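Translate sequence into structure tokens.
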Amino acid sequence: MLSYFLSLLLTLFILFLTDIAKAAVFCVSNSSELHSALTSATSNGEDDVIKIVQGTYNGSFIYASHEPYDVTIEGGYTAGCASRVVNPTNTVLNGGGNGPVLVLSCDEEVNFTVDGLTFENGKVANRNGGGLFARTEGSITLSNCIVRNNSSESGDGGGIYANAETVTLINNTITGNSSDWSGGGIYAYASTVTLINNIITDNLSRAFGGGGLYLPVSWGKKVILTNNTITNNSADFGGGICIYLYDDSESVDIYNNIIWNNRIETTPWWEGNGSDIYIDNDSNDNYIPSTVNLFNNDFDQSAKGIYIQLPFPIDPSNLDNQDPLFIDSDNGNYHLRANSPCIDAGTNDAPELPDTDKNGNPRIINETVDIGAYEHQGIVAISAHIKANGSDGSITLDQSDTLTVTVSLDNNDQTDNADWWLAADTPFGLFFFTFDGWTDAWVPGYQGPLFYLNSF
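Result follows.
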């Protein structure tokens, strides 16, 4: 009898574990298949994993369900989902300006996980979330994604609108999004919000706050912002970030971030506050401040640059509006130059400090972490690739033939300058390149920015 009882328990336990592990897996390679997978996932009674093959998917993709099952969506798969390359540029969801790019909505406690996708050209009117609208009683996790050129007219969250118990964003680029209301780049309403290694740039809130990021935090929980780069965003107030804390027990941890060169809009009838940072740490107006930990960041510490409802002294570990010296911010390169003041200026005690930076490189070099989403990796060799008439090997030319030499330099995202020279060893002697033509006299190397050389 005892043996039968134990056997029955073991069988039930195995069946129970099997049921937990059950999940539907979809491999999709076109827009129609993606629509079908999302539709099936709403009512199939199990967790769902949707694997998206590399390519561009046009349309507005919607998952709306009452079922209590998790959904995971991953981009970057090769044909047949045989393997995966995590790079958001290889898997693009394009809204075409005709609705939200992706909607994930459930009124149950479920978890939404999205990884390795680009959301672009979403546009909604009188709604929230032009690029991504996500709502659940559980968690929302977005990683390794690009959210760009989306908009919300008469709504919040031009790029992302996230409403959940917990919201986590890691290694994303949020750029060029806009909203008529709050959160041009991101609007996240949650009890716990965590942002790590994100680039948030060139977003706009046309009214209210949070050009880059708007966070109304409630239910006595917290916000963690660690090693993000938030720059060139704009709003009426809180051009970079805008945070509201509605309970005395709530807290904000802001460590190792570049929050720099953001703007507030000023008109004859309105002058906003906090071009880089706006924090209302007393939203319930009881004169008891919520906890704000602000350490080892780079932001404008003037009255215009930062606004705190109940002010406190700014810790000297923070840099005061120092130019981070990005390599090429005009073209989206927010790596640090070798002489950046943000190198080794962070704290290794930051909450949720990642092991790697946004590129996947080691997060700590020279014992102390850098400020911002990228860790400066030290001196990295520039690699050159030379082709003669499009060939990597030797070629034979007649005297009248044209020779075209292409020199490609890979700067490894570390610099836009190099020491270089160009020499040609010909049957007629050794010639050196100059900007006035070729010469047989030796010339020193050129030091300056890399650029395209026209034919000489």
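Note: The chain has two helices and 45 strands.
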